[in-house]
Amino acid sequence: MLFQNDELSVRTLTLEDNLLLAHWLSNPVVLEFYEGRDNPFNKEKVLEKFYNRNDGTYRCIVEYSGIPIGYIQYYQLDNEDKKEYGFFDSEIIFGMDQFIGEPDYWNRGIGQLLVSSMVEFLIEERQAEKIVMDPQTWNKRAISCYEKCGFKKVKFLPKHELHEGEFRDCWLIEYIAK
Fold first, then answer.
1. Are the beta carbons of 71 and 89 closer than 8 angstroms?
2. pLDDT of residue 51
3. Which residue from 57, 70, 152 is spatially nearest to 108, judged by alpha carbons?
4. Among 27, 39, 94, 148, which residue carries the largest CB count within 10 Å?
5. Considering the entire predicted model, what is its pTM?
6. Cβ pair 92, 76 in contact under 8 A
């Protein structure tokens, strides 16, 4: 287990989790916010995207009261990514992405607990100086969650991410370690 905070725990993704990911990422309600409804995943696509990749991304399953409910990943930005976003090469910056794959667990404050717990983990265990994400501008609920966790909008990213057949605007948001 990576960490636990109250009923929430985060653990490393295992091969047995592929069916969970395929289930979540084939649900149009989840895909509306993560990957796009035009991009459903089957088991083969999950295995290709989430497994056997040496890309420096740490992939994890989110559990609440022992029940797998979602996914979170984190990664250290390389110098090329830092330059693209206007950060200094010497800074230790992590990016993260997440979703709650069980809609019954939405709107219960679990996302906020997850994001704030991961921020704490990255600062304390990985010595992160900044943590960044790039949510799509229309995803007001996610942005509100991130702002409640201390993230600030720092840069508008026009046509940054392909989602449901069109390039969508995003916000670069950051959390600065104190």
1. no
2. 95
3. 70
4. 94
5. 0.95
6. yes
CB contact at 8 A, 175 and 129: no
Q: Which parts of 130-165 are beta strand (E)?
A: 130-133, 152-163
Write out the DSSP string of 14-48: -GGGHHHHHHHTT-HHHHTTTT-TT----HHHHHH
111 vs 122: CA distance, rounded Å: 16
Query: CA 71, CA 137: separation in Å to the nearest integer?
Result: 21
* H or E stretch covering 136: none
The rounded distance, in Å, linking the Cα atoms of 124 and 95 is 15
Cβ(130)–Cβ(177) below 8 Å: yes
* pLDDT value of position 43: 96
Partners of residue 75 on adjacent β-strands: 57, 95
Residues constituting the chain:
178
Residues sharing a CB contact under 8 Å with residue 80, sequence separation 6 or more, in sequence order? none
Is 174:144 a contact under the CB 8 Å cutoff?
no
Sign of CA dihedral 134, 137, 142, 148: positive
Averages of pLDDT over each 10 residues, the chain, 178 residues: 96 97 97 95 96 93 98 96 88 97 97 98 97 97 97 97 96 96
Q: CA 10, CA 118: separation in Å to the nearest integer?
A: 9
